[in-house]
Amino acid sequence: MKNVLILASGEIAKEFVHRIDKSRINENHYYLSLSQESIYGQKCMENITCLDIDPTSYMRLKQVMFDKEFRVAFVIMDKEDEALYTFKNIRKIDSKILIVLVNKWGDRFSIEDENFSMIEINELVAGSLYEKLPNVPITAKNIGLGRGEIMEVLVPVGSSFAFRHVGAISHRKWRVVAIYRNEKQILPNSGTMILPNDRLIVMGNPIVLEGIYKKINRRQGVFPEPFGRNLYLILDIGLSKEDILLQINEAVFLSNQLAKTKLYIRLTCIKNLTLIRELRIFENEHVSLLLSYKDEDILQDIDYDLSQYDIGLFLMSRNLFFKKNYKEYLYDLTRPIYLFGDKSLYNIKEAVILMSNETEMESLSSSVFDFSENLGLSLSLCDYNPEGDFEENSNIVEHYESLSRLYNFKITFEQKRANPVRELLKHDEVLHIAPFSQSVRDVSFINFLSTEVSHYFLSIRKHPQLLIPVEN
């Protein structure tokens, strides 16, 4: 049995004692000073001894503490001077007992004592008010380290985390440990799907959780949001005039299909000024030409453009994408990449996704639906598996079916025991959407002999391709 001394007065003290009574913690015995007013209002329970003393009186307090060993003393007083006198009396009687004091008077009340803990009322109230603000995470204050490693996050409608499976989002530095839905607690496994309006209890590195909170609350907008707003065509003037015009016209067409976007065209390797003058006819309030005269400065120019123009989608030729340092540089920018194909986007009516791993598929899904809907493309999810093992992708199918209902956008599922690249080549006029993952970043032409789809789908020049950044 641990003895606890409570020297109290006022409404906070009254609520504290009521909570003690409700808790029924039988391992503690409470010695409670009423401080000349009955804040308890009833006869004391078995494990509560009521004391009719004035805590500011040193002699009366000493009589109580003389023959008892108290583990902790709480000082909850209405008046500052009474709280200070009470603290000094306790410390004279016992130099090592832990004293917990409630401070309602701000910085005026200052005590330096290694066995002392002060609860700041103003700080607690301000913290509670702060957490009621929009876009502020709720963190556990008195659990674990109390540094924000346990957080509650509401999943808003339209969140990129909605309709995703727990196993596809949890990582080494953080986990979803509980989900609250319809006033019920769910202890999730990797196959549990997160729904809009779920409250997630997440645990992990506090810095990582701050980023996760922002990602969960980031709503998907009209593509290319949330990556940025505008389109950015990188164009090598060394190409034939025909190829240059084809790329510009296709970029203008795509910009017109995506509402409220502007197209910036960065021209590189400039040698033919006559051609530049001809290309000025494309400039208007929605299209701007940017010139790079030195090829070695192009990456610095792109960095500048990113800081100025809210770039959300890059467009370029496949040859430029594989140019030295480009692919790795673009991967680090975490922006979608549109690669031109032999077939033009004008006549394409279908977008195709080849099945890959669950994390990648769920990460890019919202962008896929948004892009397809805006361009009026039908959408097909193709599971081409040489081994015919389709069951392992059931979570992915469930995820896309849920988004299909949410967006009211039909999706076709195709399962076939076949080589994925051969099947993709059989498609005529399609846009191929794929995750821009680390395996794609590291691919080279030599890797096209690999059995991994991500290692060789870029060798297909027939179709235009949209690479969407995913979590790795």
Q: Total number of helical segments? A: 15
Number of strands: 21
For the residues shown, what is the average pLDDT? 85
Helicity, as a percent range: 25-40%
Main β-sheet description: 10 strands, mixed
Low-confidence stretches: 36-42
Rounded to the nearest angstrom, the radius of gyration is 33 Å
Characterize the structure shown.
The chain is elongated, with a radius of gyration of 33 Å. Helices cover 33% and strands 25% of the residues. The protein has 4 domains: 2-126, Rossmann fold (3-Layer(aba) Sandwich), CATH 3.40.50.720; 134-217, Alpha-Beta Plaits (2-Layer Sandwich); 222-310, no CATH class; 341-472, 3-Layer(aba) Sandwich (Rossmann fold), CATH 3.40.50. By secondary structure, the chain is an alpha/beta fold. The strands form 3 sheets. It has a 10-stranded mixed beta sheet, with helices on both faces. A 6-stranded parallel beta sheet has the order 3-2-1-4-5-6, with helices on both faces. A 5-stranded antiparallel beta sheet has the order 7-8-11-9-10, covered by helices on one side. The chain has helices spanning 11-23, 58-66, 80-93, 121-131, 206-217, 241-257, 273-279, 298-309, 318-321, 326-333, 358-375, 394-407, 420-426, 438-441, 453-456, and strands spanning 2-8, 28-33, 48-51, 70-76, 98-103, 116-120, 138-139, 150-154, 174-181, 184-186, 199-204, 230-236, 263-268, 287-291, 311-316, 337-339, 350-354, 378-384, 411-416, 430-436, 465-469.
